[in-house]
From TrEMBL:
UniProt cross-references to Gene3D superfamilies, sorted A to Z: Aspartate Aminotransferase, domain 1, Type I PLP-dependent aspartate aminotransferase-like (Major domain)
InterPro entries the UniProt entry points to: Aminotrans_II_pyridoxalP_BS, Aminotransferase_I/II_large, HisP_aminotrans, PyrdxlP-dep_Trfase, PyrdxlP-dep_Trfase_major, PyrdxlP-dep_Trfase_small
Identification of the protein by name: Histidinol-phosphate aminotransferase
SUPFAM superfamilies: PLP-dependent transferases (SSF53383)
Sites bearing N6-(pyridoxal phosphate)lysine, chain numbering: K258
Annotated EC: 2.6.1.9
UniProt GO MF annotations: histidinol-phosphate transaminase activity; pyridoxal phosphate binding
Cofactor(s) it depends on: pyridoxal 5'-phosphate
Amino acid sequence: MAPTDRDAAAPGALPTLTHVTVPASPATAGPTLPLRPELAGLEPYGAPQLDVPVLLNVNENPYAPSEAVVADVAAAVAQATRGLNRYPDRDFEALRADLAAYLLAESGVALGVEQLWAANGSNEVMLHLLQAFGGPGRTALSFAPTYSMYPEYARDTSTAWVAGRREDDFSLDVDVACAAIAEHRPSVVLLASPNNPTGTALPAATVRAVLDAAAAVPGGCVVVVDEAYGEFRRRGTPSALELLADHPHLAVSRTMSKAFGLAGARVGYLAASRALVDTLRVVRLPYHLSAVTQAVARAALAHSAELMAQVGSLRDERDALVRWLRERGLQVADSDANFVLFGLFEDRHAVWQGLLDRGVLIREVGPPGWLRVSVGTPQETRAFQDALVEVAGL
Ligand SMILES: *Cc1c(COP(=O)(O)O)cnc(C)c1O
């Protein structure tokens, strides 16, 4: 290794770092990157982002923010920008108060500011949960088919991952769930309700039984109910928010990405006991939620009544789409979300590709034979239906 200038200037002062080898030319192989073995050869997660006219693949709200929302968000961002020389409010108390007010209006559950938490998408919220309650020697448990990011949170926090099974109709058998908890003694259980990719929601009795089983795990177990699609639940489907008062080991995760139509803003949040939220404050990076993000979220939340009206029409569209698919003889999972899982196709990839060829992008996900389509505008849904009739010969 060639001596550096510093070696020459101070002979003998510092040993040369012989384990660092700088390649002689770009063509020469560099030093080995000490990648964790469990990450070797892995691809980053993500649905294909293709430029086609009808995008029904990632469960976004098809309606862009109204001009009134745009104007208020822009003004709030301008105001936040005037203070960007300073770090933002680390504990984002004003945003947490707004989120508590929103959940009271949406679910009728009253929560204190200290029971709310937020981060850059609910994916980051759930990573915080795994950072606090997972880790080496610990286990996270969920029930497949479910959200494909859950095993990644576990992997990234060196938490062991166990996937139990849902029934053929995608419901969760209480005895199976409780037996899995007793057997694996997880420190975290992740339940998506409504579930992705199936759209199915869990009855309150199932969530209660899981909470009881979790409470019996030696060393403790946190139950995370991921309600990313909570606002789309059908009348009579409960929210796990109603169980928070009696269950300090429950965390209910929500997001502004789906019903709220703000996927690009990256704001997720959760509600839990104060004790649980306090642990998340330990693992978060300081100032993780930028002043701009906080301003955008608060300005949008001020329009929540208007946005919730839109959710009502998406629910109606969803129910009509479920009926339409069933009338054509297809199997459709009950949906409390803004998407529908349908099948069964012998060659689902051919159907997916045929739709794409007609400008409609949906998602090839879930058990073999099934496809998932997001609820779009009435025009987008029509384009999907027309394309499906052609491709599948319905
Ligand atoms: C879309 C989705 C989320 C939301 O992720 P964000 O990071 O908030 O955009 C969370 N959970 C499930 C099951 C989802 O499908």
